[in-house]
Amino acid sequence: MGLEKIFDLMPFADLLGIEITHVGDGYAEGTLEMREELSSVPGGGVAHGGVTYSLADTVGGAAVMSATEDVSPTIDMRIDYIAPATDDLEAEAEVVRVGGNVVVVDVDVWDADGHHVATARGVYKSGGRSEDTPWLAD
Questions:
Q1: Cβ(55)–Cβ(108) under 8 Å?
Q2: Structural element, H or E, at residue 72
Q3: CB atoms < 10 A from the CB of 92, how many?
Q4: Rounded Cα–Cα distance for residues 113 and 74 (Å)
Q5: What is the three-class DSSP state of 37?
Q6: Residue 67 confidence (pLDDT) above 70
Q7: Vertex 67, ends 112 and 134: CA angle to 5°?
Q8: Distance between CA 115 and CA 109 in Å, rounded?
Q9: What is the pTM assigned to this prediction?
């Protein structure tokens, strides 16, 4: 199963509308269409920080999985919100280190207006084989 397909089947990503648009070699890109119900203000217009975080975490996880070829759960993610996200969101993630037990990834998030809205660093679990996971079953 391709990595894009794995994330298409993730219920939470589907609920938010997260789409992985490119993944491979420790790198991933993804998008999220802004909708009123994802807003932090009445009437819409500004993405809730949790939505931005979820996009960063999901795209970061896709980059990690492309580097490890295994399920890699999030251990920790630190995010800095730089500007309000006022339109559809795009994220880009790149693995910066693959270790024996953890993988580190950097993620940047922009909105469709070109505002750099967040930067994040995630740490994901690595080092084990997850043959029993439902994500990697054929």
A1: no
A2: none
A3: 19
A4: 29
A5: helix
A6: yes
A7: 90
A8: 9
A9: 0.89
